[in-house]
What does this fold into?
Amino acid sequence: MNLFQRFPLLKHILYMIGVSVVILFLVFLFIKMFARQGKEYELPDMRGQALAALEDENPLDFHFVVIDSLYNPDVEGGTVLQQDPKPGTMVKSRRKIYVTLASYAPADVVLPELSNMSVRSAVSALEAAGLVCGRLRFVDSPYRNVILDCSCKGKMVYAGEKMSQGAVVDLTVGIGEGVAATRVPFVIGQVPAKVRRGILASSLNVGREHFEGVTDRATAVCYRLDPDYTGVTRYPLGTDVEIWYCDASEADAERIIATFKVDSTKIIRPDDDEFYISSSYDDDYDYPSNDDDWDW
It folds into this structure.
């Protein structure tokens, strides 16, 4: 009598063990094939490329999901602005890639109420509404640095009016009584958006901008101004400030600061007391925008 005949239950137990091993083997094999374990690829940088082209040339069969669209007049519609996961991430084929695209047309936005605001507040309000502050035109008025009216392409516009996102709004500002002067803000090392904001908020106008040799204007940094920043010299309200930019990789903050006509970290006030300034423009600090606002 063999063992299985003496212990019939043992045969069934061995059968169950064998079947379980086979099932587990098939399950793990299926999981490995389904999850594509060990087959990961470095995600390329898709920013700046058209989504249609990415979908046509898609060897890894990525599934693109559009989560947002933003209007940028300098970028062609349908171009990828942002991606998630980030470039360089190791991913598997057929992965979902979440992208933000440049929209083909600007959305409608509402012009905020700007009357009686200061220039600094108006610049911030326009930016928050998706609009762009253009030229500042100073006119005779007893109310210095106060917004009197605004226009777009030479036509008067009013609060509550619908406009295209990114539209440029010019402001008419009161010049006040007496001497109206302001100082060039410290915007060296800042990107164009912050440079323009800082200059306009100081009641100056953005003059010619030079981008010679710059590969990406959005990330370029300012390395020179005309008139120069000194922290002391005053200029009439509305003076044009000419700006030069270079690639951020070529910017050397110490070298740039060393070319200033004055020490940019220590300015002597007219009363000979020491006046310290930051080595960069602080968006959160309420820099005075005209001469009367400075407590000198």
In short: The mean pLDDT is 81.
